[in-house]
Amino acid sequence: MPTSIFSTSEEYLPAARRELTDVWGKRAAVERLGPDVGALTLPDATLRDVSELCRTRPVSFVKHLTAEIARVPVDEARDLDAVTRRALAALPEDLPSGPLAVQAWVSGQNPAEYGSAQLFRGLADALEKQGFEVVRSGAPAVLSACITRSGVLLGIGNPTDSLSDWPGGRVRLSRGPDTISRAEFKLEEAIKVFGLGLPRSGVAADLGASPGGWTRILRTHGLKVWAVDPGDIDPRLLADPGVHHARTTAGNFFASNQTRFDVVVNDMKMDPRLTCDTMLTAAQRLRPGGTAVVTLKLAHGNVVEVVHKCLARLRKKYEILHARQLHHNRHEVTVVARLR
C-alpha cells in the first residue's frame, strides 16, 4: 500500500498522528520512524491525495511529505555507496523532465559515519553520473533522504505535494545586517512556504509589533505599516516615514483608529482564544479580501482541539488559506486567512 513519509516537530508528533487518524480513521496506519518523522500508510491514497487533505483540512502539525520508495536498513545504510545504489534502483521511471532536487536530513541519532551533507553529495554524484542535473530545490521532482536510527528513508515527491521545498520542511534562514529580531523568520517562512502574495502597496497593521521585525518585513514588500504595541519599536523603523508607531494595545487601537487595512498580522503572545477575538475585531478594519497572518500560541494539553476550535472561530469572518506549524514556530501554529 502507498506510504507517505511525513515530518513534524518532535514534541508534536503525537498531535500529527492524532490529526492524521482523525482525517482517515481506521484506514490509516501511522508509524513513528524517528523523533520527528513518521510514516502514513493508506490503501489507494497517493502522496497527492494526502498532501491535498493536509492543505485543505488543514492538518496543522505535518510540515513535509514524500512518497516512500525504499527503506535502507541500518546495517546496509552505514555504507554510503549502498544507499546510493538503492536510491538509483528505487527511482520511478516516470520522473518528469528537468533537474532533480536532492534533499537530505537527519532525524534523531545518526548511526552512520556520514551526515546529511555527505549523503547529499553521494547521491548527487551518483545521479550526475547517470545524466541527471542535480539541484537542491526548485525542481519538478525531489528525492528525499532521511537518516534515522534504523537506517535511511528514501522518498520521491514534488515541491507542491511535499508542502515545503526544503529538506524535511526545515527552512533555513539567516540573520542579515537589517534583521531586527528572529521573529522575522516566522513571517519570512510563511511567505516562502505558502507562496504568500502580499500586495505591493497598501496599508498593514502589525499587532504586537515590538521590536518591529514583522513591520520590517512588511515594509520590504512595499506596505505602509501601523506598528501597534505599547512597547518600543526599533529606532531604524521610527525613522521610516512609512511606519507609524501606535503605542497602545490592539483593542484601543481599533477603537480609535478608522484606517482600512489591506493586511493585518498578529504575533502577540497571548492565549489563542484571545488572539482569535482580536483578529475578529481586526476584520472590521480589513478591506474585502484582505489578508491576515496570525500565530496561535500553544500551551500543554490537547493542542489539536485548541487549533481546530481557533480555526472554527476565525472562520466566522475569514476563509482559512493555510494553518501549519512551521520550522521557525516553536509552540505555535501560523495561520494565513482571507477576509470573507
Automatic annotation (TrEMBL):
Source organism, top-level taxon: Bacteria
Keywords: Methyltransferase, Transferase
Domain (Ribosomal RNA methyltransferase FtsJ): residue spans on this chain: 181-319
Biological processes annotated in GO: methylation
Pfam family of the protein (one): FtsJ
Coiled coil (residue ranges): none
GO MF annotation, one: methyltransferase activity
UniProt keyword annotation of Nucleus present: no
EC main group: transferase
Enzyme Commission (EC) number: 2.1.1.186
Cited InterPro entries: RNA_MeTrfase_FtsJ_dom, SAM-dependent_MTases_sf
Name assigned to this protein: Ribosomal RNA large subunit methyltransferase M
Source species: Streptomyces rimosus subsp. rimosus
Taxonomy of the source species: Bacteria, Bacillati, Actinomycetota, Actinomycetes, Kitasatosporales
